[in-house]
């Protein structure tokens, strides 16, 4: 018998618990903290579970399946990922523990597209000064600490820790069609910092920065996978009971083919996402993000169509998933941008 745990069983149990928890009417931040989700892949010394992104991915998928309105993407996935990318030091360790225990809400001011380090760090007589602007930042509104990916005078990527209420910091919510997510613009104008607030990345700074953008894109791909699966399940259930001409519409050949097409799209997306989780890298993530987010929009649109007239009403809830899928498609790189990245890889060969 193998000494290694069966991770598929662990993931199935985690998925079941997550589904039950997300079925509640209100899923607030304290509930996510008490469930242990915030520090899933934080080190045990910091109070985390010491798990991996594979377990975080399970939660991301279930959040998408439930179309849950939480701050998990920015406050946990991105914030913990950024803190894990920095070597242990006193100020970083204190913040990591506070985030895991829920005492402090933090987020990574990673823009939803374009330059991943939009902040500039300049030296002064007293230390450092940071300025810059990031748009479409998940869950920045309501965060107490902001982690800014910045570049110093030499162009080296670093991580900067600032208080969200510091003079010179402005967080402005950006209205988007998807009401289940909160995005914001973070503007920083000449905020003075001490050396303890500027952290070097562990290892190569560019690789670490790319790892954070990949983590964000893959988390969104997992969310889209959950959105698509929820829409297929809802459609199969609805077409099995909706009667037309004395029989369930799910028995019609055209409806069967449409549901089969949805299943195929989801199956391919799942394989790409699981491959990217198992062997993370920019190209694997690009394939997963491009395909899964595009598939979710297609599946949600097909679900609305197969629900008939009721699919276009507020009561059906299909519109919530379609809007979430549409935002996921563009957040942290559109399918076209990720395919262009893949194209450049093959052109270099």
Strand content is 15-25%
Q: Output the CATH class name of the largest domain.
A: Mainly Beta
What would you call the structural class? alpha+beta
Radius of gyration from the CA trace?
A: 21 Å
What's the total helix number?
10
- How many independent structural domains? 2
**Helix content percent band:** 40-55%
What is the 3D shape? Answer: elongated
CATH H-level superfamily title of the largest domain: Butyryl-CoA Dehydrogenase, subunit A, domain 2
Mean pLDDT value:
92
N-end to C-end Cα span: 44 Å
CATH topology heading of the largest domain:
Butyryl-CoA Dehydrogenase, subunit A, domain 2
Please tell me the CATH architecture of the largest domain by its name: Beta Barrel
InterPro entries: AcylCo_DH/oxidase_C, AcylCoA_DH/ox_N
Pfam family, one: Acyl-CoA_dh_N
Keywords: FAD, Flavoprotein, Oxidoreductase
Protein name: Acyl-CoA dehydrogenase
Main attributes?
349 residues; alpha+beta; Butyryl-CoA Dehydrogenase, subunit A, domain 2; Butyryl-CoA Dehydrogenase, subunit A, domain 3; 2 domains; eight-stranded mixed beta sheet; two-stranded antiparallel sheet; 10 helices; 10 strands; elongated; Acyl-CoA dehydrogenase; FAD; AcylCoA_DH/ox_N; oxidoreductase
In short, what is this structure?
InterPro entries: AcylCo_DH/oxidase_C, AcylCoA_DH/ox_N. This is Acyl-CoA dehydrogenase. 50% of the residues lie in helices and 16% in strands.
If you had to describe this structure to a student in words, what would you say it looks like?
Residues 215-345 form the Acyl-CoA dehydrogenase/oxidase C-terminal domain. This is Acyl-CoA dehydrogenase. InterPro entries: AcylCo_DH/oxidase_C, AcylCoA_DH/ox_N. By secondary structure, the chain is α+β, with helices and mostly antiparallel strands. It folds into two domains: 7-200, Beta Barrel (Butyryl-CoA Dehydrogenase, subunit A, domain 2); 205-347, Up-down Bundle (Butyryl-CoA Dehydrogenase, subunit A, domain 3). The protein is 50% helix and 16% strand. The strands form two sheets. Strands 1, 2, 3, 4, 5, 6, 7 and 8 form an eight-stranded mixed β-sheet that branches. Strand 4 (145-151) and strand 5 (157-163) form a beta hairpin. Helix 8 packs antiparallel against helix 10 (335-347). It is elongated, with a radius of gyration of 21 Å. The relative contact order is 0.11. The mean pLDDT is 92.
